[in-house]
Amino acid sequence: MPLTAGLDWLLDRTVVPGYSRVGSALRRHWWPDDPAPGALAGTTVAVTGANSGLGAATTLGAARLGAEVWMLCRSVERGEAARDEILAELPDAAVRVHRCDVSDLAALPDVAADLRREVPRLRALVHNAGVLPPERTVTDDGHELTLATHVLGPHVLTDALRGPLAADGAGRVLFVASGGMYAQRLYDDDPEYTLGDYSGTTAYARTKRMQVHLAEEWARVLEPEGTTVHSMHPGWAATPGVTDSLPAFDKVMGPLLRTPEQGADTAVWLLAAREARETTGLFWHDRRPRPTSYLSRTRPSPEHVRALWNFCVRTTGVPA
Ligand SMILES: NC(=O)c1ccc[n+]([C@@H]2O[C@H](COP(=O)([O-])OP(=O)(O)OC[C@H]3O[C@@H](n4cnc5c(N)ncnc54)[C@H](OP(=O)(O)O)[C@@H]3O)[C@@H](O)[C@H]2O)c1
């Protein structure tokens, strides 16, 4: 194993150095090149939860590469405030705000219909929106909130936008998952978290694992259409989400947390990287594919992954 590969492996297995800003500071010495300037010129990218943290950083990163970016935000007001900050930093950026609550399954078909009208060709759809609720919360559609936000909403939106993604000819879908998913197995037997005492961090980690395996299934389904699908984890970045949902972690890890730009680095890189076209269905961190499980007890069988897919199809009615 070359020295850098060994060090990279060590960073991954020791977690704290790898996930913190130490990881990206070291790995940038050997990771693949940055996308060329203007690599996304003439393309359109859509980012959910684009008004805060990693979503805003992904929007800025994609705009810097020349993409028109549709910021899909549940609050237009917060979206416009974030857009104005981006424009202050990058006055030429082509950024537009569109209302989209990804957990509101009933509203997504109309949102997607608007997008299909406005965006006939979509280079990338980034499923970035994320939540870590303190208690079990149920959406108007009757789904547990992390499941609706991380899994069912992205599933519906991916299906609804597969036309514009295919029309681009180099379309890609990206799920922003979390390293926290390593701690959990695939809960296809209780996806709505109805059993046992509810823990927001457990629900978050379970649904982040679902995202990774849902991405694998979508990769298989969209391959004939020329669209690739990947998932990634950002490590640990200082964002409003971390400060609000994990204050103790934020306090302890503070100086070691990545900036939002460092956390969003792999997401932005995957939007333009050749590697994300030549492969599909992989899980990335710091510009390199990573294993999806380190423990046999968290490694799902193909039947479990299939059960997750079937659950999503049965619950949402898509793909038809
Ligand atoms: N920061 C980290 O260290 C870290 C680590 C691992 C994974 N992640 C993942 O990275 C992603 C971004 O997280 P972040 O740290 O940047 O957190 P954040 O600052 O809280 O941003 C989350 C974004 O998601 C939006 N959102 C939540 N529910 C939504 C919904 N139903 N529809 C549309 N947008 C919604 C939020 O909108 P509002 O402003 O309206 O609430 C906000 O814009 C998440 O998927 C998270 O799980 C982050």
Question: What are the low-pLDDT stretches, counting only 5+ consecutive residues below 50?
Answer: none
CATH architectural designation: 3-Layer(aba) Sandwich
> What is the class in the CATH system?
Alpha Beta
Largest sheet features:
8 strands, mixed
Roughly what is the average pLDDT, rounded to an integer?
Answer: 96
Strand content: 5-15%
**Rg, nearest Å:** 18 Å
| N- to C-terminal distance | 46 Å
Protein name: SDR family NAD(P)-dependent oxidoreductase
Pfam family, one: adh_short
Organism: Nocardioides jiangsuensis
Based on the model shown, name its key terms.
alpha/beta; 320 residues; SDR_fam; NAD(P)-bd_dom_sf; 14 helices
